[in-house]
């Protein structure tokens, strides 16, 4: 190991005055004074002493960025960022540097000498070494050694050796100041001989200091490290007969044997360090395990009192003064030259350094392999840790889901409990009401009987015979009436379960139509043939209809008489299979076939509209009904909008022909926003007008003639989608525009692709599907919000499912698509996927628009007939 050198750093000042070089003598206890030169001469001294040094100016030292704060003490410590410790020795006081602008005091007003040593956590200098009293100096050196936390024995040894330093003739520490450059030269000539006399003592002193600091700073960490390496992890003491197990961990033989005896299972025990499974040695002879010679040698080194032996090369155990220089391959042992000459002649051998090369290569190769495998295992450990974290998260989520599911079940059960309790409470009230009513009837009957009996007794006892004969007929009728009264029996209510074998279904003889709600009655009966009062009967009835994809709105509802209403809506005509179960048991008649026919839309009348004087419908198209029953009718040929109440009386006529706000030119469609506001498609004015139907005022208009977004060419209908955006159909721009409530165009539909629209007339939106009537192509086409064509149905013709100028559309309460087949003078009904399900059976003259009222009526405007028809 290369020995470190003690570095002396001298900091000079610019002030030109003399400085003293103090030399302490351990013998005379008196300082000798010699005046030294600074610049060239001192450098020569240090070079001759072969002591590494550096010279730093005051400004460069204290302005250096890698230095920490300078403390205001007689002696201060500066720690550099390169982790070196600088001991600053001072004969004077330090002063702080003023932070005030323009003011800067001298930090040091005396000469300074700095001693630089390697830093260590335990080494802290805080003593002014320049004391006149050498005993005080020695005491502080002892405190310094004590701060290194050596053992008492080592402390005495080190202290003793350190004090040997002061038995030299001269022990000197330099404290130098700047002198006048001319004086430097003069004193150099005068003192050259004296300086040469001190050179030998200075060299010895520097070497002693170097050895002291090297031993204190280098040896102490080495000893501590050795202690760690020779400490058994079981007994936490120095190894005693160290043994190596198969995982290459070392323990005391006795500790290992005791640990194995306490933890062994099935002939194996776990390593205390890595928990690896280790097989017990044969015969449980732990003393036969391999001995750790490395740890043994370290223990031997640590036991020596002379710690310098730790750094000495190994010597032969048989020949104390001979170093081990060779390795005998035949005996596999390290030998000294004497051993070779005496016992190993003719053996294959080589110097230890060369013999180690192959072993080192083999070991390092395996070390690299093991490190790579360890790296892979660390990655696997990370994966396992990640998997463990994922498992924790997954289990936590699963637990949360289980808790939520349980809470959901509990909530549902609580709801069912409430429903059952409410049902029982309703049953109780009804039965009690019936009992009270029967009781009142009986009490009234008893009063009548008592009154009749009392009257008859008085008649017999107090009246004449003539009076009795005249009253006999009346009394006879009354007696017969009272004796003929039947008493209703009210038995105790019992909640007997319904039996599927005794239950029946009623109402199957009716006609069921596609798109119309079908209803029949389930009569749940007990084993005695009575209507069951089972509290949870609604939940115990299963109502199954096939094909399931062609039915909607399947419900089971209870009635006051104890029977159940079974409802569903068939989407298309055909035969449906119906199956009913009660308490998990099928009814005897199930499953049964239920035929469903095409819907026949019947004209049940027309709106009786009462106009004011001079008013009449010229060509009704758009129509809408609010929740109050008010009817809004757009008169296409009259260029106005009429508002009627539910009795048909005209409340207001809005607008006339023109282009100003509130005026119209061939308006066609209308959309009800709320009970008081509508949007009107003003076709030939190429705009949409927002109108208050109560006041007749225009709230807003948007759009103008053009082909760009937000512009219109003959807008003929306006609809509202699920996001409450406006869907405007343009007849001449061949597209559908979706707009915000502020009138800003968002996107278009049907204006591109091979199936782009030709003359779109009406559009409705349902579940992200835009259904558009292509009037002149006689199709209904479906697009999604991304303008992707989905499907189409219909073609030109007059058969079921065919069109001739399809116009307005709407969805009724059962989501049946009703289409005005204008030139075929009819309304056709379709499912949302385009299957024909019904039609009107009576011709309509040019139906243009269709809508549904809140009361379930279907209203159709016929432009040719100038009427509004009611369908059902």
UniProtKB/TrEMBL annotation:
Filamin repeats lie at residues 493-596. PROSITE patterns: FILAMIN_REPEAT (PS50194), NHL (PS51125), ZF_BBOX (PS50119), ZF_RING_1 (PS00518), ZF_RING_2 (PS50089). Keywords: Coiled coil, Membrane, Metal-binding, Phosphoprotein, Repeat, Transmembrane, Transmembrane helix, Zinc, Zinc-finger. Residues 367-401, 432-459 form a coiled coil. NHL repeats lie at residues 610-647, 651-694, 790-833. One of its GO terms (biological process) is protein polyubiquitination. It comes from the Eukaryota. This is Uncharacterized protein. Residues 232-275 form the RING-type domain. The keyword Metal-binding applies. The chain crosses the membrane at residues 162-190. Belongs to the TRIM/RBCC family. InterPro entries: 6-blade_b-propeller_TolB-like, Filamin/ABP280_repeat-like, Filamin/ABP280_rpt, Ig-like_fold, Ig_E-set, NHL_repeat, TRIM-NHL_E3_ligases, Znf-RING_euk. Gene3D superfamilies: Classic Zinc Finger, Immunoglobulins, TolB, C-terminal domain, Zinc/RING finger domain, C3HC4 (zinc finger). Residues 311-352 form the B box-type domain. One of its GO terms (molecular function) is ubiquitin protein ligase activity. Signal peptide: none annotated. PANTHER family: BEE-MILK PROTEIN (PTHR24104:SF57), E3 UBIQUITIN-PROTEIN LIGASE NHLRC1-RELATED (PTHR24104). The lineage of its organism: Eukaryota, Metazoa, Cnidaria, Anthozoa, Hexacorallia. The keyword Hydrolase does not apply.
């Amino acid at each position: 190991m290369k020995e470190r050198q003690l570095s002396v750093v001298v900091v000079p000042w610019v002030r030109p005055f003399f400085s003293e070089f103090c030399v302490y003598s351990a013998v005379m206890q008196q300082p000798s004074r010699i005046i030294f030169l600074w610049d060239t001469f001192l450098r020569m001294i240090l070079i001759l002493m072969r002591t590494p040094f550096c010279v730093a100016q005051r400004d460069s030292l204290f302005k250096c960025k890698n230095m920490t704060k300078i403390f205001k003490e007689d002696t201060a410590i500066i720690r550099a960022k390169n982790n070196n410790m600088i001991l600053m020795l001072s004969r004077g006081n330090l002063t702080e540097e003023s932070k005030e602008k323009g003011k800067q005091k001298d930090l040091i007003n005396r000469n300074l000498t700095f001693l630089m040593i390697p830093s260590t956590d335990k080494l802290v200098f805080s003593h002014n070494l320049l004391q006149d009293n050498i005993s005080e100096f020695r005491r502080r050196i002892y405190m310094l050694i004590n701060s290194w936390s050596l053992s008492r024995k080592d402390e005495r040894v080190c202290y003793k050796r350190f004090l040997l330093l002061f038995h030299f003739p001269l022990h000197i520490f330099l404290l130098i100041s700047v002198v006048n450059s001319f004086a430097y030269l003069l004193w150099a000539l005068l003192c050259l001989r004296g300086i040469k006399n001190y050179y030998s003592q200075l060299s010895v002193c520097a070497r002693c200091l170097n050895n002291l600091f090297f031993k204190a700073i280098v040896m102490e960490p080495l000893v501590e490290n050795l202690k760690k390496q020779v400490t058994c992890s079981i007994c936490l003491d120095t190894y005693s007969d160290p043994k190596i197990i198969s995982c290459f961990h070392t323990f005391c033989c006795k500790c290992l044997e005791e640990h194995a005896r306490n933890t062994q299972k099935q002939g194996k025990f776990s390593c205390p360090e890595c928990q690896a499974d280790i097989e017990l040695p044969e015969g449980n002879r732990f003393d036969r395990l391999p001995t750790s010679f490395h740890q043994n040698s370290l223990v031997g080194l640590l036991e020596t009192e002379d710690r310098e032996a730790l750094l000495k090369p190994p010597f032969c155990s048989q020949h104390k003064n001979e170093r081990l220089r060779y390795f005998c391959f035949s005996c596999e042992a390290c030998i000294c030259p004497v051993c070779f000459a005496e016992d190993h002649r003719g053996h294959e051998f080589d110097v230890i350094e060369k013999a180690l090369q192959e072993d080192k290569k083999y070991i390092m190769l395996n070390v690299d392999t093991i490190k790579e495998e360890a790296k892979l295992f660390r990655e696997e450990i990370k994966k396992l840790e990640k998997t463990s974290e994922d498992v924790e998260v997954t289990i936590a989520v699963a637990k949360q889901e289980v808790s939520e599911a349980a809470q959901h079940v509990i909530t549902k059960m609580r709801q069912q409990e409430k429903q059952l309790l409410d049902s029982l409470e309703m049953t109780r009230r009804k039965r009690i009401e019936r009992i009270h009513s029967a009781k009142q009837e009986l009490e009234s009957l008893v009063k009548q009987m008592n009154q009749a009996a009392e009257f008859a007794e008085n008649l017999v006892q107090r009246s004449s015979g003539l009076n009795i004969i005249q009253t006999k007929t009346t009394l006879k009728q009354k007696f017969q009436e009272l004796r003929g009264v039947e008493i209703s029996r009210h038995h105790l209510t019992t909640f007997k379960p319904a039996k599927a074998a005794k239950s029946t279904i009623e109402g199957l003889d009716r006609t069921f139509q596609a798109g119309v709600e079908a209803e029949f009655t389930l009569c749940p009966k007990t084993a005695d043939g009575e209507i069951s009062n089972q509290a949870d009967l609604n939940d115990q009835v299963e109502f199954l209809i096939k094909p399931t994809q062609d039915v909607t709105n399947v419900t089971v509802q209870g009635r006051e008489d104890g029977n159940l209403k079974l409802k569903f809506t068939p989407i298309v005509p055909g035969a449906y299979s119906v199956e009913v179960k009660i308490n998990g048991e099928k009814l005897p008649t199930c499953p049964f076939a239920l035929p469903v026919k095409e819907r026949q839309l019947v004209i049940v009348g027309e709106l009786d509209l009462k106009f004011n004087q001079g008013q009449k419908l010229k060509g009704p198209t758009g129509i809408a009904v609010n929740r109050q029953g008010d009817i809004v009718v757009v008169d296409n040929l009259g260029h106005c909008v009429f508002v009627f109440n539910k009795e048909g009386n005209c409340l207001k006529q809005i607008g006339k022909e023109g282009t100003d706000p509130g005026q119209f030119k061939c308006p066609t469609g209308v959309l009800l926003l709320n009970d008081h506001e509508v949007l009107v498609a003003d076709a030939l004015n190429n705009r949409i007008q927002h109108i208050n139907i109560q006041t007749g005022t225009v709230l807003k208009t948007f759009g103008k003639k053009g082909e760009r977004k937000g512009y219109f060419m003959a807008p003929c209908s306006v609809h509202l989608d699920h996001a409450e955006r406006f869907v405007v159909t343009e007849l001449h721009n061949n597209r559908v525009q979706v707009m915000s409530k502020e009138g800003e165009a968002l996107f278009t539909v049907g204006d591109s692709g091979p199936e782009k629209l030709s003359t779109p007339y009406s559009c409705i939106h349902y579940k992200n599907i835009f259904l558009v009537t292509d009037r002149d192509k006689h199709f209904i086409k479906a697009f999604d919000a991304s303008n992707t064509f989905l499907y189409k149905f219909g073609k030109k013709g007059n058969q079921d499912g065919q069109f001739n100028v399809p116009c307005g559309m709407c969805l009724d309460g059962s989501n049946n698509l009703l289409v005005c087949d204008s030139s075929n003078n009819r309304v056709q009904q379709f499912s949302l996927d385009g299957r024909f399900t019904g039609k009107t059976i009576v011709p309509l003259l040019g139906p243009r628009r269709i809508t549904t009222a809140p009361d379930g009526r279907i209203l159709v405007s016929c432009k040719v007939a100038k009427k509004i028809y009611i369908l059902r």
